[in-house]
C-alpha cells in the first residue's frame, strides 16, 4: 500500500490543522473547517500558532548557537513550513543531525520530499507515536548518538497525551535515555485564556480529531522536574527570549521553556 493511501481525509488531523493555522496548503477541507471553527470561537488562534513557531526558531538558534548542541529529536514535528528545525540548526552548525517524528502519512510524504540536509549533516524521519517512547528512541538511534547531547523537542505535542501521569512518564522516559548536557524544549497551550480553553473544548467535542488538553503553566513546569531551566524559565512563548523589536508581540495562551539535563 502506498503511504498516501493511508491518509484519512474524513477527519481532521492536528498536524494538518496546525498547517492551516500557519497559512500552509498541506491540508484538506476537513482540516480547514476544524481550524475555522476554532478561529470563530477564538480569533487569537492564528497568533498563537505563529508566536509558538517563533519560539521554536529562537530555541533552536540558542541550542545550536550558544549551547553547542548538534543533535535534535523533534517529536510531533508536523508538516514542513519555513525555517524547520534542521534548517535553523544546520545554518549555524552544518554537521547537525536531526530526527523528525510524526505519525501522519501526509507528514511522512511531505517530510521525505522537503526535509533535506546539508552534506555534512543528516536529516531523518521516523514514523512513530509519542505514546510509544521506546519505539521512538529505537528508531532515532539509527541517526542520533545517545552518547552525545541531544535536544528533545516537544513543541505543542504533549497536549495530545491527555493523562497527566502518562504525559510526564513519556517525557521522563525520553530524557532518561539522553546523556548529561541534553536539553528538553517544550511548549503547549495553557488554560490561561478562557476563550482559548472554550475553543479547544468545542474542537475536541465536534471535530472527530484526537483531543487536545491545555494545561496550566504549573503543570507544564512539572515536565522540567529534575532539569536546570534556562532563563527565563517556563513563560508565555512570546516572553521566551524575544528578538529585539518583538518584545510587544501579541499575548497568547501558550507557554513553554527550555532546560538542561545535569
From TrEMBL:
<keyword id="KW-0489">Methyltransferase</keyword>
<dbReference type="InterPro" id="IPR029063">
    <property type="entry name" value="SAM-dependent_MTases_sf"/>
</dbReference>
<dbReference type="GO" id="GO:0008168">
    <property type="term" value="F:methyltransferase activity"/>
</dbReference>
<keyword id="KW-0808">Transferase</keyword>
<feature type="compositionally biased region" description="Basic and acidic residues">
    <location>
        <begin position="240"/>
        <end position="249"/>
    </location>
</feature>
<dbReference type="GO" id="GO:0032259">
    <property type="term" value="P:methylation"/>
</dbReference>
<protein>
    <submittedName>
        <fullName>SAM-dependent methyltransferase</fullName>
    </submittedName>
</protein>
<dbReference type="InterPro" id="IPR006764">
    <property type="entry name" value="SAM_dep_MeTrfase_SAV2177_type"/>
</dbReference>
<dbReference type="Pfam" id="PF04672">
    <property type="entry name" value="Methyltransf_19"/>
</dbReference>
<feature type="region of interest" description="Disordered">
    <location>
        <begin position="239"/>
        <end position="262"/>
    </location>
</feature>
Amino acid at each position: 500500500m502506498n503511504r498516501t493511501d493511508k491518509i484519512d481525509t474524513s477527519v481532521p488531523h492536528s498536524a494538518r490543522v496546525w498547517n492551516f493555522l500557519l497559512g500552509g496548503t498541506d491540508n484538506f477541507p476537513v482540516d480547514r473547517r476544524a481550524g475555522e471553527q476554532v478561529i470563530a470561537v477564538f480569533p487569537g488562534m492564528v497568533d498563537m500558532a505563529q508566536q509558538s513557531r517563533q519560539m521554536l526558531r529562537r530555541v533552536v538558534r540558542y541550542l545550536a548557537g550558544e549551547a553547542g548542541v548538534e543533535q535534535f529529536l523533534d517529536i510531533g514535528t508536523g508538516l514542513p513550513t519555513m525555517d524547520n528545525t534542521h534548517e535553523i540548526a544546520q545554518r549555524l552548525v552544518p554537521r547537525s543531525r536531526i530526527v523528525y517524528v510524526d505519525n501522519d502519512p501526509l507528514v511522512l510524504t511531505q517530510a521525505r520530499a522537503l526535509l533535506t540536509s546539508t552534506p555534512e549533516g543528516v536529516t531523518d524521519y521516523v514514523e512513530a507515536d509519542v505514546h510509544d517512547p521506546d519505539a521512538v528512541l529505537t528508531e532515532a538511534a539509527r541517526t542520533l548518538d545517545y552518547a552525545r547531547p541531544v535536544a528533545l523537542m516537544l513543541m505543542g505535542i504533549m497536549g495530545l497525551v491527555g493523562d497527566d501521569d502518562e504525559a510526564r512518564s513519556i517525557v521522563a522516559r525520553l530524557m532518561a535515555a539522553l546523556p548529561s548536557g541534553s536539553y528538553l524544549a517544550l511548549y503547549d497551550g495553557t488554560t490561561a485564556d478562557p476563550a482559548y480553553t472554550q475553543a479547544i473544548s468545542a474542537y475536541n467535542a465536534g471535530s472527530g480529531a484526537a483531543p487536545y488538553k491545555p494545561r496550566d503553566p504549573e503543570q507544564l513546569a512539572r515536565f522540567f522536574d529534575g532539569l536546570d531551566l534556562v532563563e527565563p524559565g517556563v513563560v508565555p512563548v512570546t516572553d521566551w527570549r524575544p528578538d529585539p523589536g518583538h518584545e510587544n508581540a501579541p499575548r497568547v495562551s501558550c507557554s513553554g521553556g527550555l532546560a538542561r539535563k545535569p
